[in-house]
Amino acid sequence: MCENSNMPRLLYTLLICLFLPLTLLRLLWRARRQPEYLQHVGERFGFFKAFPTKPVIWLHCVSVGETRGAAPLVHQLMDRYPEHSILITHGTPTGRATSEQLFGDAVLRCYLPYDLPFAVRRFLRHYQPQQGLLLETELWFNLIHICHEQALPLFLVNARMSEKSASSYTKLGGLVREGLRQLTAIAAQTEQDANRLSALSGQHAEVTGNLKFDVTPSAEAIAAGIALRQTWGIGRPVFLAASTRIGEEELILDAVACLNVPGLLTVIVPRHPQRFDIVAAMLQKRGIAFTRRSDLVMESGTAVILGDSMGEMEIYFAACDVAFIGGSLLPYGGQNLIEACALGKPVIIGVHTYNFKESTMHAVETGAARRVHDTRELTNVLQTLMSDSDQRSCMGEAGIIFAETNRGATQRTLELIERYRPSIRE
Questions:
Q1: What tens digit of pLDDT does each residue of 135-152 get?
Q2: What structural domains does the chain harbor?
Q3: What is the pTM of this model?
Q4: Is 138 part of the annotated catalytic residue set?
Q5: Catalytic pick from 43, 66, 138, 248?
């Protein structure tokens, strides 16, 4: 299991082996609130049931954001290479569920095995992919090394590398440098990402843009959002707090409590489903009248909707007047704001956006988003936007322009892949 000759990778593999019991305990712990973590456990060790019937193109999309962001690329690959099967691997049940929602039976899907050499080799032997695409910053060094060893083209696409992540990876020295060099090519989201990845690897990383800009709003989601808004009360102003993290819900509710917006309905959608019940308990403790989205029928007097459904974020965005993007009031690094902007919604974002630094900065610069530093400022900005429909309209239009002018990453990524893999059609 752990017989690597390269010393940094050998130590890395030994650590994975040593921490494996804790990893399994973590699966059990997370399954307490999300039982899906105990499904398909064999896949995490390289045991699979379904066999491909056609040559395979493989993409690794660890969770929800990567899966949704990869959708335009997946569809393009399916159109261009109908003689191939598309395999999407995941790391979380929510990523897997998103894949099922977006692509149904049109793709193969499984969990990517833990980065143990025996499990990786079994995965590659079972599916025999012709090429692999790792989305964003998924760097698994045994996986990369074995693909390189087997001459399997492996690309890091839609890659991002924050200053914080780059600093952490620098401490790993030769392990990271060797891993990045063994990739076939790196397609980065921004010039800054490319520079950091190039500095870590000593090799050139290309800038292809952010695939998430190519995710266009669907007519079905817009229609569903309009219908949802009608059930909430077409005349009620709606504020959406999307992808909130631990500690942020309290801050948001504090901000909302200070607003003077008659009839305001606040919709809170926690980032992780295992926190739905926790947030529900917090709302009950505060004495706030709320309705779960899963209850379908909204109770009278409801002040807050708890978004406890999966795969409906686009619908929530379509239904709201103003959207706050979570993970940014507290130091979690932020979440993707592109989807809200593309739907023409005014966006509020906190200061902690290092995971999406460039796109957030550009959205603020173009007037598509407003940045707030604390609860008091969130209250003030919300009060202004909820009281001024013209300002909301201007921000919404700026958001649409911001999203449209940054599209094209899918085509550039495909061109990069085909440049290195001219024989994929064979």
A1: 998 899 999 999 999 999
A2: 7-209+408-420 (3.40.50.11720), 219-405 (3.40.50.2000)
A3: 0.89
A4: no
A5: 66
